[in-house]
Amino acid sequence: MYKIVYKKELNPNVTMMDIEAPFVAAKAQPGQFIILRADEKLSERIPLTIAGYDRKKGTVRIIFQTVGSTTKLLSRKNEGDYISDFVGPLGMPTKLDGLKKALIVGGGVGCAIALPIAQKLRRMGCEVTSIIGFRNKDILILEDEFRACSDRLFIMTDDGSAGEKGNVCAPMKKMFAEGEGFDEVIAIGPLIMMKYVVEETRPTGIPCTVSMNPIMIDGTGMCGGCRLTLNRDGKKMVKFACIDGPDFNGYEIDFDEAMSRSRMYPEFESRAFHDTCNLFEQADHHEKKSNVHTRVEMPTQPAVKRSRNFNEVALGYTEAMALTEAADCLGCKNSPCVKGCPVNVNIPSFIAKIQEKDYEGAYQAILATSSLPAICGRVCPQETQCESKCVRGIKGQPIAIGRLERFVADRHNESADSLPVKCEPNGHKVAVVGSGPSGLTCAGDLAKMGYSVTVFEALHIAGGVLVYGIPEFRLPKAIVSREVENLRAMGVDFETNMVIGKTFTVDELFSRGYEAIFIGSGAGLPNFMGIPGESLKGVYSANEFLTRANLMKAYSDEAATPIMRGGKIAVVGGGNVAMDAARTALRLGAESVTVVYRRSREELPARHEEVEHAMEEGIEFLFLSSPVEIIGHRNPEDPRDPENGFVKAMRCVKMELGEPDEKGRRRPVVLAGSDFEMSVDTVIMAIGTSPNPLIKTTTEGLGVNSKGGIIVHEGTGETTKDGVYAGGDAVTGAATVISAMGAGKLAAKSIDEKIRSKAR
């Protein structure tokens, strides 16, 4: 629900509201729009262009004219009331870069859309001339606001009751006749007004942009009602205002066709279009309304609220949302999405079960190949795996496979009243080292085959990186605990506080009767930069910082584990671990948190969703910069200094991107003379981890590569030591949960085949 925090009647038919929606306000740009529903039961979905936003307050301004049932219902709401849905920002922002002199033309309520464009141009230093037109003074809106952001303002009314008498083209004709030029003309208002503005501008050759929001109906690309024909370079093409716009080159628009189509809507056909686009009420119909798919956004805690708590950020799909999203899956016969999944989940099958409302069937379809669906649905980088192969993503957005997987798993966990049953034992014993995603997967698959499996975990809680590395707000630990309990019910034994290589060696495990051993010990050895000052107090590895916060619950006032709170914090790195550390530091009360990354935003390896969440929460990003020294307080040797040996600042250099490296990413190159200092109290190094050397140094015959990763046969996961298998980060270095699961699954299959072959 979204709170109305401010309301003002601009005239008897036009209302202005500020809506509390921090996640929209954080990313909104002039020209974009939102979709809202005023009421869960009585209202349809309507698109409204963003008329303003306040990122600090987390509010978005809408200005609307009362023309139909939904806007009437909305207009009757007051400050303190709530609206049901507020989705966005959608559409493409208006392109304003490089403009030095612009002419803004607004008509009627279109002025509300033109205003934030004029305001941004003014902030950019552009010379702004504005023309706003109305029928009469009684419906004139935003005059003071336009005066504040315009070098010149022309007010035009049909009857001359305010400003000058005439239409908006009159001042344009005069300026063009006098030879005045502009870098661009931007027109927003009724279709007929925009048509005349385009024709008035065409002879000058000045670029003319128009906003086609008047023909949008739902705004998600589902209905196709906002389609329009463009004439581009002698060729006709169909575009959609809500997906490809709403801004277009006015010279390319077939306005006569657009106006003809708009006259189809006012009566019953308008109602039909709106009913077709009401996705929440139409979810059960499962109709594919367009070739362009726009995924259903998942609700989240408001950014302002969540940045100060450790509760889960993403709230998951409702049933209606899941049905809507699943309805657009094409069920491709060749299933390219499955090929993108490291554990080969039958994605079309489980989504088809959702469409049928057979949620338990969907869960079982996932469980056939994935042991941890509730976890994978939350932390796997689906955008670079299964979703990257989705056919829907060619023209629109891919199906939200991960969100649907989470929905199915959560629904099962909420309703399940029993644990899995133990399989008939086959008389063979296998040891698994490490209880992270690869170890849990291997153990689960072997238990299903009847093996007696013991998992040896170095920490006091099973779960590995799932419990010490990933924060509660991304992966609630109750979910990990449930998965561990499921494995216990299947007969898997967990031995915690067991450091293999110390408590027992690998060879000692064989002597205890284990016929095969899987090493999934992860990559728990943190990397540092080797720069001066890394030994100062207040410099953490991300592993230490996150382990203190997650595993040892240092965020709780009742926890005994100390952790540095507050102050100015710098996180060095750009991966998911860096995002986790930065967002955890913010929740621990940091004054400010800055992520320092040596490449640009485009090269950030972290998941897009995690980066967006971090930015929404107020995390700052310093791109193309790299630390070269961490500086302590002045008298680090003076024991009388209460800040003896603590961090004071970090010296960095600016970078530029050079030629691509072996991975295809452009190498960062230091810019000479670009040194600068930033004041910091804590530095968290999140630049990767390496496999811990403990097992390799205590296991004769176990081969490792130059980076410390255990060498395995790609087809089986078997190491250079007979009977020993390995997978996950212990082999690859820090990677993803799902790839580690895939390695565990492969090893379980190979172990079974080898033990069975020996038995024969």
Describe the 3D structure.
This protein has 760 residues and is of the alpha/beta class. It is built from 26 helices and 32 strands. The strands form seven sheets. Strands 6-1-2-5-4-3-7 form a seven-stranded antiparallel sheet. α6 (191-201) links the parallel β12 and β13. α13 packs across α16. The longest helix has 23 residues, at 737-759.
List keywords for this structure.
760 residues, seven-stranded antiparallel beta sheet, 26 helices, elongated
What is the average per-residue confidence, as pLDDT, rounded to a whole number?
86
Our count of helices gives 26
Question: Main sheet, how many strands, which sense, barrel?
Answer: 7 strands, antiparallel
Question: How big a fraction of the residues is strand?
Answer: 15-25%
Number of strands: 32
> Helical percent range?
25-40%
- Kindly, what is the distance between the CA atoms of the first and last residues, rounded to a whole number of angstroms? 63 Å
List the helices and strands and how they pair.
Layout lengths: L1 E10 L2 E7 L1 H4 L7 E5 L8 E9 L4 E7 L3 H7 L6 E2 L1 E6 L10 E7 L2 H14 L3 E8 L8 H7 L2 E6 L6 E2 L3 H9 L6 E5 L2 H11 L6 E4 L15 E6 L2 E6 H4 L2 E3 L5 H8 L5 H10 L25 H4 L12 H9 L8 H4 L7 H9 L3 H9 L5 H7 L21 H15 L13 E5 L3 H12 L3 E5 L8 H4 L8 H13 L3 E3 L10 H6 L4 E4 L5 E2 L12 E3 H10 L16 E5 L3 H12 L4 E5 L11 H10 L2 E3 L2 E8 L14 E14 L5 E5 L5 E4 L2 E4 L3 E2 L3 H4 L26 E3 L2 H4 L4 H23 L1
Parallel strand pairs: 8-9, 8-12, 9-10, 10-11, 12-13, 17-18, 17-20, 18-19, 20-32, 22-30, 23-24, 23-30, 24-25
Antiparallel strand pairs: 1-2, 1-6, 2-5, 3-4, 3-7, 4-5, 13-16, 14-15, 21-31, 26-27, 27-28, 27-29
Helix pairs in contact: 3-4, 5-6, 11-13, 13-14, 13-16, 14-16, 15-16, 17-26, 21-22, 22-23
